Amino acid sequence: MLLRAPAPPPKDVDLSRTYDAVIVGSGAAGGMAAHVLTSHGLDVLMLEAGKKLDIEAELKSMEWPYDHPRRGEKPYTSHALRFNEYTVRQPPYAQGSPWKTVDSYVQGWGGSDYTKNIVVNEQDHPYTGTRYAWVRARVLGGKTNIWGRLALRLSDYDFKAKTHDGYGDDWPISYADIAPYYDKVDLYLGIAGHPEGLPHLPDSLFQRSTRLNAAELRLRQSMARSGRVLTPYRAGVTTDGLKHNKYRSRCLGRGACGRRVGGCDIHAAFDSPTGLIYPALDTGRLTLRTGSIAREVTVDPGTGKARGIAFLDAGSGQALEAKGRVVILAASTLESARLMLLSRSPQHPNGIGNSSGHVGHNFCEHVMGPGVYGFFKDLAGKPRTIDDGRPGGFYIARYRNLRERHPSFIRGYGFEGSSGTEMFPSTTRLTGFGASYKKAVREMSSAAVHMGGFGEVLARYENAVGLDPEVKDKWGIPVLRFSFQFGDNERKMAADMADTAREMFEEAGIDVLHVDRKVLTEGWSIHELGTARMGTDTRTSVLSPFQQSHDVKNLFVVDGSSHVSASCQNPTWTIMALAWRSCDYLADQLRQGSL
Amino acid sequence: MTLTRRDVLRLAAAAAAAPLVPRVVVAGAAPAPAAGRFFDAAQMALLDELTEMIIPQDEHSGGARAAGVAAYIDGRLGEYDASIPDLREEREKWKAGLALVDATAREVAGTPFLAATPEQRVAALTRLAAGEEDPKTDGERFFVELKRWTTFGYYTSRIGIHEEMEYKGNTLLAEFSGTDPATLPTVRPHEDPKPAKP
C-alpha cells in the first residue's frame, strides 16, 4: 500500500542551448510552472539553489521519539532562534554566533532533526534591517516540504477588497478569472474539505473531508448560532488518492502531521517534488539543475529582454548562465524580489522589471500570535480518540468586515485550531507537579481545544525590502534589507482576535485556561506576499494580470510576490492557481511568437 | 464552575500538600546511585528523585524514574559541546539549580533534599514551584526548566506514550473516527453573497 515509485532519473543539463523557459525555484510556484509548461510541450530548465534530498530518509514520519537518540531533536550544536531573540535583537540574527548552525524559529519545534537539512542555516543566509522571522527552505520543493497544508481559496472580498472598503488596490483579476484554475489545482493535487457555501471562503472540489471530533463539533454548533463557521481543516492532502500520480499515497491518518516541523513521507500532503516536479520530469521535457544559486536575470543588450539566469554552482562556485526564451521567477516572494533588484543593467538601472520602483514594496503577509487554549471539561477522562491522525483539526472562516464594518480595523482574520489527543500531550502545560498533575495531563488531554488567528496585514508601499549595500551572503551576493513593521490596523485586529477567540470558547462552554494576546514577530506566519504586485497601471505595479513583467515581456514572476493584498487565507493554493493561469497564457503567447 | 488557572494552581497545591509521595516507596534498599555522563552520583540521585516527584508512579503507570528521565536529561547535557557558551551556561544552571534545591530544603527542613522527610521534600519543591507561571528567582526558573525537561523526557518515552497516555496513533488508519461531515447541519452565513459593486 505504501510502495510508491522512486524519483525519476535526472536528465543531463545542457547550458549551451536555449531552453523554452528557465524557472528559478522549485516550490509551489516553480513546480506548478514546470508542470504546466511541460504539459504544453515546452522544454524547461528548472534551477534550484538547494539539494535534492532523499526525503523519505530525512522525514522518517513514523519513527517513535524514543527510537531516536535525541528524541527527534536536531544535534545540540544547532540553535533555533527564539521569539525573544527576534524581538530583542536586530538582524542579522546569526552574526557572530558560536553555534555550528543557526536555524529559524520553526526548528525550535519538536522533530527538528527530521527537517534539519530542509531549512537554511541563517549564518550562510543573513539579512538586515527591521526585525523579521524569515523562514527559508533551500531544497528541492522549498517550503512545500514542511508547509502547514491549509489550502484555502480567496474570494472577491479579497480580490476586490478596495471596492469593498476603500483601502489599497483591487487585484486586476476577479474570482471568476481564477476559479477554473483553483478547480484544476484541486483535481490535480487533491484537497480535503467540507463544502459550506460561503461567499467569502469559496469551496474547492473536495475529496473526502477529515472529520471533526466531539469537541470541535460542539464548538461548530455553538458558533453557528452567531453565523460563524467552523469547518473541518481544508487540507492540501489527498484523502482519496490520485490515480494520475504514482508518487503519492492517500492519507492514512498516521499522526505525523501534528508532531513535527512538517513533512509527509508518503506524500499524501502536497509537496512540489512528488506533486508537480516528478510528473513533469516524466514527460521528458523538464531538466532539473539543483545546487544552482541564481544571482541575476541576464539581459540581451540589444533588445533589453531577459536572456537567462546567471547562477553559481553551489559545489564549485563556478559562475554559469542558463538561457531561455522566457525567464520565470518562482524563488519565493522575497527571493524573487531580491533577484529582480540584483538584476541591474543599462536597460534596467533599478533592477529588471522595476521601472515603477515598486519591486520590493507593498510587502504584506499575515499577523499571528493571538489565540486561546481551554477545555471541554465534561470530555475529561473520556476514552481518547486518535485526534492527531488527521492533517489538521478545524478552520474558522473570517467573519469580520463582511457585511458589518468593524469600528476599529478593516479586513479580517481566520483561526486554525485543533483539539484532543496528540502524541505529546498539550496538557503538559498545566501547572503543578505530582500525582494530581500527572492525572490531569492524562485526563484533560482529550478535552483540550486550542486555536490561533491569522489576520490580513495591509499592503503598504512603505513596507518593503531592498538590497543591503554592504552585507553579502555566503555566495557573495548582496542580501535583503527589511523595512517592514506591523501597523495600527494589525495591532487592533490582533486584539480583536484574542477577544473574540475567548468569547467563542466561553459561549461554547469551553473553560478557558489561557488567552494569548502576544503578537508574534513580523514574518512568523511564513506567508510573505506582494513585493512585485500585479496591476494594470504600469506606474504602480510590476506585473500584468498574467504575472508578466510590464517592462520585460519574456519575464514572469509566478510566486506570492505578485499578490496585491494578503487576504487572511493561507496563500499556497492561490499561488498555484495563479501560476497555472499565467503559464497557460505564457505557453499560448510563446506559440504565437509574442514573447 | 470553570477551571481557571488559579484552580489548576490550587489543585497542584493540594496535591503537593497531600501525603502522596510515601505511597510509592520502593521496597528494599535502593541501588547505590551511579554517576551519570554529566552529573555525579549525588546529583543523579537528586535529579532522579525530583523527576519522579514531578511525574510519580501511580496506579495507572510508571513514573519518570521508570521511564529513565534523569538518565535522559543527563545524557543530553553530557552531549553538550561546552565550547558553545549557551550550552556551557545551561549546564552550569543545572548544577546550580540542583544546589538551589538542596538550599531550599535546608531552609524548609534544615537538611539537604534527599535527607529530608517526604513531606519536607514536597514542601521544598512546592516552594520552588510557586512561581511557575511567572518565575522570578533562580530557584523558580530552575523548576520551570526541570519540569519542561521532565515532561518532555517522560511523554516521549515508551512508558509515557504507551502506558501512561495509551496513545493509539502513529499507525495506519483507514479513517479517523470523528464526525462524518455529511451529517453536519448546514451553517447559513448571514453575509451578503457579494461585496458592494463599484
In short:
The complex is a heterodimer of chains A (595) and B (198). Among the domains of chain A are: 14-52 and 139-190 and 270-365 and 460-475 and 527-595, FAD/NAD(P)-binding domain; 61-132, no CATH class.
Number of strands of chain A: 18
Summarize model confidence as the mean pLDDT of chain B: 83
The SS-based structural class of chain B is mainly alpha
Distance between the termini of chain B: 51 Å
Highest CATH level, the class of the domain at 14-52 and 139-190 and 270-365 and 460-475 and 527-595 in chain A: Alpha Beta
Q: How helix-rich are the residues of chain A, as a percent range?
A: 10-25%
Reading the helices and strands of chain B in chain order gives: HHHHHHH
Strand content of chain A: 15-25%
Low-confidence stretches of chain A: none
What integer is the average pLDDT of chain A?
A: 95
